[in-house]
Amino acid sequence: MAAVPTLARRIARSGVRPLCRWPLAWGRAARQPPGLPLAPCRAFSNNKILVELDESSGVAMMKFKSPPVNSLSLDFLTEFCISLEKLENDRACRGVIFASAVPRIFSSGLDITEMSGKSMEHYAEFWRAVQEMWLRLYGSNMVTIAAVNGSSPAGGCLVALSCDYRIMVENPKFSIGLNEAQLGIVAPFWFKDTFVNVVGHRIAERSLQLGSLYPAPEALKFGLVDELVPEEKLQEKAMAVMAQWLALPDHARQLTKSMMRKAVLDRLVAHREEDVQNFVSFISKESIQKSLRMYMEMLKKKKS
Ligand SMILES: CCCCC/C=C/C(=O)SCCNC(=O)CCNC(=O)[C@H](O)C(C)(C)COP(=O)(O)OP(=O)(O)OC[C@H]1O[C@@H](n2cnc3c(N)ncnc32)[C@H](O)[C@@H]1OP(=O)(O)O
User: Fold this and answer.
1) pTM surpassing 0.95?
2) Is residue 189 included in any domain, yes or no?
3) Is the ipTM of this complex over 0.90?
4) Would you call 224 a catalytic residue per the annotation?
5) Which of 43, 88, 212, 301 is positioned for an S-S bond with 207, CB 3.0–4.6 A?
6) Annotation marks residue 179 as catalytic
7) Out of 58, 139, 150, 155, which one is annotated catalytic?
8) Domain with 75 in it: what CATH number?
9) pLDDT by residue (tens digit) across 237-268?
């Protein structure tokens, strides 16, 4: 998939630290016979994302580390795309597990400050980065598992929905869903398509209109997430599910995934620039800007 020039420029300018040898912080130690040195693990990190690739299993762990709430800012999205592209091009990597390094929050969704009080050019650049993130993740050849260890509204939910499998911590205080309508904004057609492909048309229609956020146990009931586990079991479970998916021949799994997702991906690719223009004209309306300001005020008031 070709990156748009603005993103390519951002990638070229970005300071991803080079790959280095690093011991993997979780999972592998349990499988390693005692006394043997750990098999090679490569890690790379930028400001907002940490990636560790265990070469022996072919599984990478991508952790979001952008406090306070892992919002999907332009910088975050750029780093996400770079990291995913590196893994996609690495023959040693066959699967990625996504999780948060920020307690209680998987991702708070698109960074609202990127959509408020900025220029038209900025909105267009931001939206291209959101599109790029989704095209790369939904279209990934790797097995992708979301280990949802915290709340995950809107764009955060989209990240999870775009993976092959979702495991969430069973805490009912953690919620997930596409709540855009609550902000007075509308999830674009490709958010909707991704949602429909996971939960079906009726549930998606009702949930999108109401902007529903579901506590983890509710989300499990209708398949928004595939299973719930206690927090301390999340990584172990994600590794076990990954092993199950990786037991299949890559080519068969990849072709099947592509067959299931291609129409939805192609739809955005065919209408990408139109989608950018729609977003820019929608988000720059004064009434929408007012809704976003009020929502941010509400978030601040909630604290006091
Ligand atoms: C046509 C347009 C379509 C566009 C599609 C849009 C998709 C989206 O993703 S829109 C974003 C939707 N996201 C949300 O509605 C989540 C809003 N946030 C929350 O509900 C909560 O912050 C939380 C549950 C994620 C975490 O709660 P808590 O731990 O209590 O933390 P705070 O609420 O105090 O937040 C800390 C800090 O972070 C700021 N913040 C939260 N979310 C966002 C965000 N999405 N973008 C930017 N900033 C965010 C929040 O305002 C606080 O800031 P300070 O007051 O300055 O500390």
Assistant:
1) no
2) yes
3) yes
4) no
5) 212
6) yes
7) 155
8) 3.90.226.10
9) 999 999 999 999 999 999 999 999 999 999 99
